[in-house]
From TrEMBL:
InterPro entries recorded: CB, DNA_brk_join_enz, Integrase-like_cat_sf, Integrase_catalytic, Integrase_recombinase_N, Integrase_SAM-like_N, Tyrosine_recombinase_XerCD
PROSITE patterns: CB (PS51900), TYR_RECOMBINASE (PS51898)
Family: Belongs to the 'phage' integrase family.
One GO MF term attached to the UniProt entry: DNA binding
Lineage: Bacteria, Bacillati, Actinomycetota, Actinomycetes, Micrococcales
Protein name as catalogued: Site-specific integrase
Taxonomy, superkingdom: Bacteria
Keyword field contains Protein biosynthesis: no
Amino acid sequence: MARQRLTIGTFGDINTRQTPTGRYEARTRYRDWDGHARLVQATGATANAAKRALKAKLADRDLFQPADTALTPDSLFKDLVTYWLEDIDLEDRISRTTRNLYERNMRTLVSPSFDNLALREIGVARCDKFIKQLAKLSYSRAKQARVVLRLALELAVRHEVLPRNPMDHVARLHREPHVPNALTAPEVNVIRAAIAHWESAANHISGPKPDGQLGAIIEVMLGTSARIGEVLAIRRRDIDITSAVPSIRLAGTIVSRNGELTFRQDHPKTAKSTRVVALPTFTADAVRRRLAKVGSLGLDGLLFQSRDGTPLTTANVRRQLRQVLEGAGINGVTPHMFRRTVATAVNTNASIELAAELLGHTDTRVTVMHYIQRSELVNPATAALLDRAFKKDEE
């Protein structure tokens, strides 16, 4: 008689027999994950009891365990986290900064609530409640937790430790509509004046005098819409101020990680963010003044740098800008606000497509949602149009 062909995770006919001790034994062949069919058996006081014991034993076998991991549905979530981080390092597809951010968000936001749960205990209801509770405290934290929890559980699904990802059915996050804030031209000039007064060292008491970099950094951000990290990563080779139309190539960013020296990364936030931007007159003038001040500068020398020649950190520039402006009674201004200000000005005077191109966006929806300050003023042409449509008959 030919042996029954089994697929992985299935068993054949169950045979029972009474043992010399009077108990009953049920046995069958079960095909494990590795493809080998093995004999599995269990005993009971009766034939039916033996069959029930055998089926319970088969149900507990690790159907989803792949050959290259010790994880099972009964493994703790913290073991999955370790395995997930190791997998990220093995793939080496995301930046070290993003990898560290994922680990931080996992350890601080998710792990405290999930570490001691077995993977099989993590279902849709538990995940949904966790995300909603976190969202009450902070939309941003809930969003970050959702990302890393989904990624870790997705790895468990891909490696067949779990049959499905519960995060696929968690309710979407909702937040109040966000209105991007941008500066007006008069506000920009007030900021310029405050920085110029500080850089003049009129009230300087002790320590190194301002070196003029902060004002130039602001002018470059206003003239290029670049992120602060992109501005601080500009090298001499990226600058062309001799052509009829001066320009800057934005092709890097500054990265600071815990325990590491700040360095220039050889691409912006995304590969598609690399772009060459024509400079308005005020930015070109600021760049020329900066180049004249630094004197001889190698092609890979940074336009903005510390007194030791090392890259400036984005955190230090943000802190310096905040301190200078708060000293002048101006609050709430961040480097990213200049990026939104530029986007809003270009959209108002040209088009959303041109604003997106300048910002390095491939999708105008991102520009509209996060960078364009909506104007309350409706085009006054509607008044003339309605006059024509509903003009009163002359009495």
